[in-house]
Design a protein that fits this description.
three-stranded antiparallel β-sheet; 11 helices; A middle domain of Talin 1; mainly alpha
Amino acid sequence: MEYLLLLLGLFLLLAGGEYLVKGGVDLSRRAGVSPLVIGMTVIAMGTSFPELMVSLNAAIEGHPEIALGNAIGSNIANIGLVLAATALILPLPVQRHAAWIDAPCMLFCSFLLTALMADNHLQWYDGMYLLLIFGLFMYYSFKHNRAESDSQAGTEQKPPMPVWTALLVVAASTAALGWGADLLIESACTLAQQFGVPERVISISLVAVGTSLPELVTSLIAATRRQTDIAIGNVIGSNIFNILIVLGIPSLIHPIDQFRFDDFRMDLVWMIGFALLLWLAILPLKQRILRYPRTGEGYSKLGRVSGGLLLTGYVVYMILLFQAK
């Protein structure tokens, strides 16, 4: 039965990821917002919905290690697994704004979470602080990037679906992603707990990878459809969302305490390290600039070499995690 649930969950993830990309792209064209912004907001929120539900339930039920480990582990998996696997399949052009604004913001949020966790709890005022920063980030993203779509007007030949249809597709796809991830998590955790794996290790590895599967599927589908702005924006936006919302809302509703900062010290270092490596990988160092065929705007690139290094780092982290248990 557990294996059947795994297969059903995977099918829901594939179908949800396919239509979430399609609906998100049409929404961006209807709203006059660049695909990068849609990837970092609407789609990032949709694919991060499983993380929010897991962390919220874990915090309320008194499992702080699962609440924290899920968010931290998902951020590590999003870069070391999701984005790395996507880059290995198709080198990803990166907008300058993503390289100079969005990725540094993700790195800042990683340092901020580390500082807030240092006193061994996340209280309601920590949640308010995280939510305030998220609101400012969303406002800036839409205000700054809305005009970017103007230069791309008229480049799409196929007319977008009606806005309400696109919204319905995004909502249904998000529900499918959440349900699929939930089935995968429940069945996989049942199988894993039979081997006596500690709660923290399960949350950072199995649960985190399970809740990151929507990001993986969505990014892979976006890359194969050449919607690379969504692939990059989905991961960066999801990582920001995981810190500011996935931990912000639960700590606002119920304090996340009774955990030891030292238990998560290594994981936080790896999370910051992956965020820093991603930022360095997408910076236009050594004149690594491409020309985007439609607009001529300068881009940097996340190539297969960088993707391979990130994936190797993730494998090393997983080995160290299970050795330390």
